[in-house]
Design a protein that fits this description.
The complex is a heterodimer of chains A (about 450) and B (about 90). Chain A is built from 17 helices and 15 strands. By secondary structure, chain A is of the alpha/beta class. Chain B has a domain of about 60 residues. In chain B, helix 1 packs across helix 2 and helix 1 crosses helix 4. In chain B, about 35% of the residues are buried. The chains are: A alpha/beta (about 450), B mainly alpha (about 90). Chains A and B meet through helix 1 of A and helix 2 and helix 3 of B.
Chain lengths: ~450, ~90
């Protein structure tokens, strides 16, 4: 690798793409909450809701958040020169490295911001559910930064497979339990009845919510798929724009992996701003695993935002809220759907999508690690693979585009997955059309509201 | 301040996430927000607060909202009224 630019300062504002959309987003639809009781207790600070629905494009980053950002931002923008040489490509490959913080991933940018707003709303303790552990780790940092306690309900299977994720969350001051846990009524019931020892993210969030509802001063923070999470993550793309501009460069293509949307939106939305305003033709490419192909093979319908089946409905590209991704290593890309913002952009042809199998992704990640000296997280490895494929296409076509991708996290907690790949034990995980059709059968059947 | 107009806009905001056609005239101050009434989630209620903010050009105090609990439509209307009360006349269509 070579450092292209660490110049510049952390941006003063986040970018809200809603203000530039030439269309209205389909409204959320509330669901009847039978048995929820008569009293409504808030789980999200009003400030975050304002950020989810407002149309102001530039949202000032509060000074306490910028101060914490300065501990690791601006993140480095690097050029993958050795990779370019190895591929024999005429493309120039740049990447924004977001693994250079204690949580190891891009999620810290929104975890810090969310924690700030929760603390300002009087929250003293946060709970959350985490799958692979990246979000839990980021929230452990964020909550401690603003003087709040944090309890993480970690999917049981991941808890046992990744013991050092638990350790780092505890090191950073969070309490961590495997879900199902004996700490909540729903978890204790599940443990008594048996059959779900490995847990899943929907149940982990359910336990975190039960904890929040029953504990004074406690609220649930849900993670990275919300519009405000993407908003906070745009600091990544804004920085990249400044850094590349200082070199006199504008990318022809921006690439990022797609889980719920904060990683992709974080780097791509500032570039899409230029496209929406007619000053750029940049292509923005999402990369998803073949095992969870929500954009490339899903449908654009109203669905629940998690597996619980009780959330408000959002119009998204989805594989169905009951879709269960078979075992694959990019835990952060297992989400059954993606953000309504990214879904709407894809539906209108403003962004592109591609899906790859995990053995190809790990092959590219291994090549990248050996040449560039950073081990990509399995999620980030999807972007690495797509960038390599684009560079190879450019080479074969005789083109010389500038490709920018987001290396959203390091994979030092994912070495078991790399061992599986290196020892030839890794299998590709595919999903059949029949499986997707069966999952989509469970979508809520509603009459869609007409847009005005 | 026309409390009736404020009440009507607040209720419209509360109903914004329910596209299945709830009769606004059937909503009373004692209508429950949760089960047995509008069956609203907390996010929909917060979105209603943001709509009220945008309509009347005010900003609710985050901690005051977060620290409050609401069971009925009347409690929400009273909360909104206590904040914007006599701040400005309400005009336009509700």
């Amino acid at each position: 690798m070579s450092t292209a630019s660490q110049a510049g300062i952390t941006p003063s504002h986040w970018y809200n793409i809603i203000g530039d959309l030439p269309f209205e987003l389909p409204p959320d639809i509330a669901q009847d909450r039978q048995g929820a009781g008569g009293t409504v207790k808030f789980q999200v600070p009003l400030a975050l809701v304002r950020q989810s629905v407002g149309r102001e494009c530039d949202i000032a980053i509060p000074a306490p958040v910028r101060e914490r950002y300065n501990a690791w931002r601006p993140t480095p923008l690097l050029r993958a020169e050795r990779l370019e040489q190895a591929l024999g490509t005429t493309a120039r490959i740049y990447y924004k490295y977001e693994g250079n913080n204690v949580s190891g991933s891009h999620k810290l940018s929104t975890a810090i911001a969310q924690s700030y707003y929760y603390s300002m709303a009087g929250t003293r303790r946060l709970t959350t559910g985490t799958g692979a552990g990246q979000w839990g780790t980021a929230l452990a940092v964020g909550s401690r930064s603003f003087g709040m306690a944090c309890k993480v309900y970690m999917v049981g299977a991941s808890f046992r497979q990744k013991p050092y994720r638990k350790t780092i969350m505890e090191l950073l001051g969070a309490e961590v339990v495997a879900s199902p846990s004996g700490d909540t009524a729903s978890g204790a019931k599940s443990l008594r009845e048996g059959g779900m020892d490995s847990g899943n993210i929907a149940f982990a969030v359910t336990e975190a919510l039960e904890d929040a509802l029953s504990t004074e001063g406690t609220q649930l923070s849900v993670g990275s798929g919300e519009a405000y999470s993407i908003l906070h993550s745009t600091v990544i793309g804004l920085e990249a724009q400044n850094q590349l501009a200082s070199l006199g460069i504008a990318p022809d293509m921006v690439i990022a992996s797609l889980g719920a949307g904060s990683n992709f939106g974080g780097i791509a939305f500032p570039y899409l701003r230029d496209r929406l305003r007619g000053t750029s033709n940049v292509r923005c490419l999402t990369v998803e695993p073949e095992a969870c192909p929500k954009l490339t093979r899903g449908v654009y319908r109203y669905d629940y935002t998690d597996g619980s089946g009780i959330t408000p409905l959002q119009k998204m590209y989805t594989l169905g809220y009951r879709f269960r991704t078979a075992g694959m290593h990019a835990g952060g890309l297992r989400y059954h759907a993606c953000s309504k913002l990214i879904s709407a952009l894809y539906h209108r042809g403003l962004i592109e999508a591609v899906a790859y199998p995990q053995t190809d992704v790990f092959a590219s990640a291994t090549l990248f690690a050996r040449l560039e000296g950073i081990v990509p997280a399995p999620e980030a490895a999807h972007a690495v693979h797509a960038a390599i494929r684009e560079a190879e296409r450019a080479r074969d076509a005789g083109d010389s585009p500038v490709v920018l991708f987001c290396l959203s996290g390091h994979g030092m907690f994912d070495l078991a997955a790399y061992a599986e790949y290196l020892e030839g034990r890794m299998q590709d995980v595919s999903v059949t059309d029949a499986e997707i059709r069966a999952s989509l059968e469970a979508l809520p059947k509603i009459e869609e509201p007409e847009l005005v | 301040m026309d409390r009736l107009a404020l009440r009507r806009f607040t209720i419209r905001a509360l109903l914004a996430s329910k596209h299945d056609g709830v009769d606004i005239d059937a909503i009373g101050d004692d209508t429950q927000l949760g089960s047995g009434g509008l069956a609203m989630g907390s996010l929909a209620l917060l979105q209603a607060f943001v709509a009220v903010e945008n309509k009347f050009g005010i900003i609710f105090d985050d901690a005051a909202v977060a620290g409050a609990t609401f069971s009925t439509v009347g409690e929400v209307v009273n909360f909104v009224d206590s904040v914007i009360g006599k701040r400005q006349p309400i005009t336009g269509e509700f």
